[in-house]
Amino acid sequence: MVKLFVRDRETIQEAVRRFRKLVERSGIKKEMRRREYYEKPSETKRRARLRAERRARRTRLLAAGVR
């Protein structure tokens, strides 16, 4: 949970800006987007597999380019 204490003589705009940064850093926004729709476990595994394949392909290409 994110808590924000408004400082003395702080404008609302500044407090809102600090609140947005806190929410972004805490990962709440990302978690909300992830939970917005139900995702079947098979879809989650598929996305993870594709992400791993892309990562492996990228490392192979970078390793080949270095030689």
Defining key terms:
67 residues; mainly alpha; 73% helix; 0% strand; elongated
Secondary-structure blueprint of this entry?
Blueprint: H1 12-26, H2 28-35, H3 41-66
Radius of gyration: 20 Å
Which ranges are low-confidence, i.e. pLDDT below 50, for 5 or more consecutive residues? none
**Helical residues, percent:** over 70%
Oligomer: single chain
- The H/E string reads HHH
Give me the number of helical elements. 3
Instruction: Note the gap between the termini.
Output: 48 Å
| Biggest sheet record | none
Judged by helices, strands and strand pairing, the structural class is mainly alpha
Query: What number of structural domains do the residues give?
Result: 1
What's the mean pLDDT score?
93
Approximately what portion of the residues adopt beta-strand conformation? under 5%
Question: How would you sum up the global shape?
Answer: elongated
Number of strands: 0
